[in-house]
């Protein structure tokens, strides 16, 4: 009988960062069907609302943690929980944001803060979860990158670079854990209907409709890929085709198209 990843990593408790909206909230709703969940973000009102909605359809336990992962005291608190929680089976490092504009015109503190959230918090929490998994048969980590991490993105420079880091970092560690029962997935969504674009001050109207996905569909593909122990998940046919084209088209042409879309 084949043992599924879920069976290997029981007991099932999932920690999800950035769960108050978008992809993180979609992960929380889906994972609560068969996991106890810990949902983490700054906005506790929204986390409470999400927990209430989830409890209408699930018997799973939902813990709410208020944390700003760019603040070292808050991050330390979550690192300790992730390191020591005996029931941890899955960590979803999802919290992240982007900025849009010519780099020199953007507020430097916001760019550094972005690196602290998209990279520093993710690296610390990945380390914490792997430390926890040392005493277990298995475990899983999903690190949310982006298709923006596949190429340098002018007017999105810091964001794309942070996501390129997440991709390289996660793929490398996935290889360190080959055949160990511990799985790391790099999730690379494309344009997904969430609050991300508004927060990033990004003009959504430039992006053709067929490139957009719903957060719930992104999460469904990610968890199906995790079940197959797939190291990278690029949800949606359009995004898969786009990233394949990035590998085969001349780099100059790709960069010109990206410039037009992102400017
Ligand atoms: P979203 O709706 O804006 O959600 C972002 C989440 O991150 C929110 O729950 C937010 O909660 C949390 N967050 C932001 N700053 C935080 C901080 N300092 N500490 C803790 N939590 C923080 O955007 P989303 O699209 O779901 O984004 C989720 C992930 O997907 C991000 O890593 C993003 O880069 C990636 N992604 C998104 C797209 C897209 O098109 N939407 C595409 C590719 C990749 P609070 O404000 O309550 O803290």
Bound molecules: NADP nicotinamide-adenine-dinucleotide phosphate
In the residues, how many domains can be counted? 1
Q: What is the CATH homology-level superfamily?
A: NAD(P)-binding Rossmann-like Domain
Write the CATH architecture name: 3-Layer(aba) Sandwich
Helix-strand category? alpha/beta
CATH topology: Rossmann fold
- The radius of gyration computed from the alpha-carbon positions, rounded to a whole number of angstroms, is 18 Å
Strand order of the largest sheet: 3-2-1-4-5-6-9
The total beta strand count reads 9
Mean pLDDT over all positions: 92
| Unreliable sequence segments | none
What is the highest CATH level, the class?
Answer: Alpha Beta
Order of helices and strands: HEHEHEHEHEHEEHEHEHH
What is the first-to-last residue Cα distance? 53 Å
The major sheet is characterized as:
7 strands, parallel
**Basic shape:** globular
Number of helices: 10
Helix content: 40-55%
What does the model show?
With 263 residues, this protein is of the alpha/beta class. The protein has one domain (5-262): Rossmann fold, CATH 3.40.50. The chain has helices at residues 5-8, 22-31, 44-57, 72-84, 108-133, 157-176, 196-199, 215-227, 237-248, 251-262, and strands spanning 13-17, 36-41, 62-66, 88-93, 139-144, 182-187, 192-193, 213-214, 232-233. The strands form 2 sheets. It has a 7-stranded parallel beta sheet with strand order 3-2-1-4-5-6-9, sandwiched between helices. A two-stranded parallel ribbon has the order 7-8. Helix 7 links the parallel strand 7 and strand 8. It binds NADP nicotinamide-adenine-dinucleotide phosphate.
């Amino acid at each position: 009988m084949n043992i599924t990843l879920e069976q290997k990593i029981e007991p099932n408790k999932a920690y999800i960062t950035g769960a108050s909206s978008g992809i993180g909230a979609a992960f929380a709703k889906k994972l609560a069907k068969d996991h106890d969940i810990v949902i983490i973000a700054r906005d506790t009102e929204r986390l409470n609302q999400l927990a209430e909605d989830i409890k209408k359809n699930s018997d799973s336990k939902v813990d709410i943690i208020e944390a700003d992962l760019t603040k070292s005291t808050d991050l330390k608190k979550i690192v300790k929980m992730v390191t020591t929680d005996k029931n941890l089976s899955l960590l979803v490092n999802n919290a992240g944001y982007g900025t849009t504009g010519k780099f020199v015109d953007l507020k430097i503190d916001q760019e550094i803060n972005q690196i602290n959230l998209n990279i520093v918090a993710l690296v610390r929490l990945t380390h914490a979860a792997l430390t926890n998994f040392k005493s277990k048969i298995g475990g899983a980590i999903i690190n949310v990158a982006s298709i923006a991490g596949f190429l340098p993105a002018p007017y999105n420079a810091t964001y794309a670079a942070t996501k390129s880091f997440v991709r390289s970092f996660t793929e490398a560690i996935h290889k360190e854990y080959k055949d160990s029962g511990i799985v790391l997935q790099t999730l690379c969504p494309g344009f997904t209907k969430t609050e991300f674009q508004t927060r990033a001050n990004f003009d959504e109207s430039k992006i053709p409709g067929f490139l957009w996905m719903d957060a719930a569909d992104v999460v469904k593909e990610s968890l199906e890929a995790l079940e197959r122990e797939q190291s990278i998940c690029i949800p949606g046919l359009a995004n898969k085709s786009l990233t394949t084209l990035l590998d085969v088209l001349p780099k100059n042409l790709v960069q010109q198209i990206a410039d037009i879309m992102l400017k």
